[in-house]
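Deviations from the work plan: none for this task. Representative record:
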Amino acid sequence: MKHHIVRAVRAGIYQLLGAALLTPVAVLLGLPILTEWTPERVLVLWAACLPASVLLALTPLMRRLEAAALSELLDVEVPKQADRLYLVVLTSLHLYVGGTLGAGMLALTPGLVALPEQARAGLGEPAEVLLIAVTVLSVMVAAGLGQRWAARRLLRTEPSRVIDELGRRQSLALELHDSVGHALSVVLVQAMAAQAALQRTRPALAVQSLEHLTATARHAQQDLDVLLSVLDDGGTTETPTLEALHTLTRGLDVHMNAVEHLDKIPAATSRTAFALVREALTNALRHGRGPVTLDVAVGTGLVLTVDNAVAGSPGGQGRGLTGMRMRARLAGGTCTWEEADGTWRVQARLPL
Amino acid sequence: MIRIVLADDEKLIRSGWTTMLSLHDDIAVVGEAGDGREAVEAGTGADVVLMDIRMPRMDGLAATQELARRSPATRVIVVTTFENDQLVWGALRAGAAGYVLKRAPADELVEAIRLVHSRDALLFPDALRRIASPHVGTATPRVPVELTPRELDVLRHITLGQNNAEIAAALHVTKETVKTHVGNVLGKLGARDRTQAAVLAYELGLVFAGAQRPAPLTGDWS
């Protein structure tokens, strides 16, 4: 309960701050507009305050203030690289809504400010005043909570969704280019070679080319298969994030070094990372022996390292590794693996 | 005998090309390369190099430039997987004699090799005109290029892919005269071959990429 009250009070203060920030500008605009008090002129002033709010919001100082207000008063996590456009929108909204509600409160509170008689709401009974005051305060709190919701939606810890989508499309194009596109080129060239060889009745050459062609096409088909399955489960929000890392290592001989605050990692990256760790651990337990070391570090990006002792002869690049490479690349990162002195190491780097 | 070097980072592409080309008696594959640096090494002294554009260590673009410096007699054909590859134009500027698509039929590839080796005409003038369109009029010459009207005509015919005999027939002059004109045009533009002359002609806006065959200069006065 206490928690709710504190939250409501803060939401109210948030509105008052907006009103306070807009007041000097509103007063300046009011001087020429409100030479006489008529409802039309008040409406004109109110309308003029909207572009003024947007202009104010365009100043870097205002945006910095807004970021502080959002995190201190509304508990919104503002990323360092917040989307500027969204921040401008939120700041304008804050100033305008705050200013409007503040002005409403002034107009309804008798004796608070010496407003001209026409601007006073015709209020008599104290009960009415109380009712209106409660209404105004509730509206302020409700508006504050609404703005909090909007801010959380707009200021996710990732850049705007458009850029996100674009990035995914580019990495998908790259992946298709490198796997299927590349293989198709080989298939074509070898097919043409076989054709030419048959025309010149050189069947041995043709057979050789067709063998290359079949192997390449089969491999590409496999790659596409993996890519499609990665894409299928890559976009869902059902994949757990790194916060659920312990569920992977429970009851297994896994030595884990993870950084703190795994919950601070952007959701999309975190999901990819979880899927990569799951795959790497499965591989390690299936093909390796002895304990597995898992290391989750944050530097310029997120770095995942899984080490284990090699059991017997390492196989070729299976579906699992191909899937991991694609998964990492689709998230804009890389995934590499190597064997050194009997240790098999898989390392993925993902951008944050 | 045309001595040719194949440069592509995929071994299976090289082996396919080798099979295709081994069936022609006038072409001999004398070397292979898996990246740009190897291409420069192996290609020095060869007649023709088939050069993939996107390769590790040194891409086809830089390799073409280096080869043009080291082995001016070597003709480079750049190979690209995708028609809209932004690097193709750069490779042509860097001195490649032409480009082919990786999916080009075997006969087309062989024809391309023979054509650039003969130095007689431009490779795939229509394709060149298409990729030239974004670059038309983008360059300004360092020194003013002053071509005579006749030389300008010859240059237009070059960009249409005509060889000297065809140009001679079109302009009603001897082949020798055309040869002289072509030499002068290349000299004035500072171009090493017909391809570079065409590239410069488009970039300097001397010919228009949209232009079809030039109008006959002699009207019909019958």
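The interface with chain B takes residues 181-182, 185-186, 188-190, 192-197, 199-200, 202, 205, 208-209, 212, 216 of chain A (CB under 8 Å).
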